[in-house]
Amino acid sequence: MLSEKQNMIRAFPFTNYDALICDGAIRSGKTSIMTVAFVDWAMRNFNGYNFGLCGKTFSTCNRNIVQPYINLRYAQKRYNMKLRRTENLMEINKGDVTNHFYLYGGRDAASYQLIQGITLAGILFDEVALMPKSFVDQGCARCSVEGSRYWFNCNPDKPEHWFYQEWILGREEKNALYLHFLLEDNPSLSEHIIARYKSMYSGVFYQRYILGLWVRAEGVIFTQFANNPKPWILEAVPRGIKYLTFGIDFGVNHSNTVFICCGIMDKGDGVVVLEEFMRDSTGVAPDGIERDFCDFAKKCIKKYQWIYKDREIKPTYCWTDQPETLTHGIYAAVKREKIPIGVTVARKESINTRIYAKQRMLNQGKWHVMKWCEMVIFSTQNQVWDESKPNKDVRLDNEPKVNDVADAEEYAWEKFIDNMGVRGV
């Protein structure tokens, strides 16, 4: 059973529009129905032609478009499909009709070169707002076959985004059919699941991913915590911590070095910020910072490793900010002191990936902080979007007591984002 808007996707090929744009909430049933309609349209109207299937990367294109489609019973009963991974090609056949669907990834500005030279009869862009304009323009320019059409879907971004400005606001000029989706437009989602998705987000992420609005990131980032932090502040260490981890942000620019110790919960159940330390590192030799960290790590391990009595909380790694010379110094000091942790440079996921992950953890009850970690509490309450950069989602970086603490804390748990299921959409 399809919703009214999903049926409108199926009906798009029978209209006079040149393009279809579907935006709105996550999990609202855009991509799967669009892929079905796109392939049916191609196989019904063309034979021996090339088509483009585009994701942000080859792997996301395969994971989000191709694999779900070839596993549909509808597609399996209707077509013969052959996926040629080495050629990034899906060949689809029905009777005397055969068409080729090439997979593309629009990762960055250079990606447009991947699509140059080919002639297409149609192209589908999945999550087009994540792709550079040059790649999308090149893909559209490849569609020179009579009757070719453009198919777009995405979740919203900021209102200054090029796709919103050019294609959504300019849809009449582009002769594009525009459909806006909400979670309720996906009949496969139960009321319980819809309510759960709505509980995962807040602030700008709720507006974009639940309401499907193209809005600018403004004001306080973690509004739910800033307004009422009590639900996330703990007086007693909870059961269920499996690992101790550490994060370090060296005071290169602002002359403050921050150490954070976190407890990673078992089974991806979340993070508890356990301890914190900040020092003014102006004029302090690297060995002074190394001694301070060793003292901090020893104190945390002594306090928490056997706090449960019946089992160990295992010390694991310390993830540090650049530069590597200071990281090597910490590594050597930890080894010399026989502290049972590894030391390596942080993965350094994008700041917005970390912000998004923390938003989801807060909303799902997967992030907590001990009441004595006053710097982390202050930092989480006072992180704000940089309103001087309306064209980008950027965390304001003008207060060391906010940003240095945030970075050190995030380094301590970012490796576990996928395990906790809080990576971005």
Structural notes for this entry:
By secondary structure, the chain is of the alpha/beta class. It folds into two domains: 4-189, Rossmann fold (3-Layer(aba) Sandwich), CATH 3.40.50.300; 223-420, 2-Layer Sandwich (Nucleotidyltransferase, domain 5), CATH 3.30.420. Helices cover 37% and strands 22% of the residues. The chain contains 16 helices and 15 strands. It has an eight-stranded mixed sheet with strand order 3-4-5-2-6-7-1-8, sandwiched between helices. A seven-stranded mixed sheet has the order 9-15-12-11-10-13-14. A hairpin with a 6-residue loop joins strand 10 and strand 11 (256-265). Helix 11 (286-304) packs across helix 12 (324-336) and helix 14 (374-382) crosses helix 15. The longest helix has 19 residues, at 286-304. The radius of gyration is 25 Å and the shape is elongated. The protein starts with a helix and ends in a 5-residue tail after the last helix.
What's the quick description here?
The chain is α/β, with parallel strands linked by helices. The chain contains 16 helices and 15 strands. The longest helix is centred in the C-terminal third of the chain and has 19 residues, at 286-304.
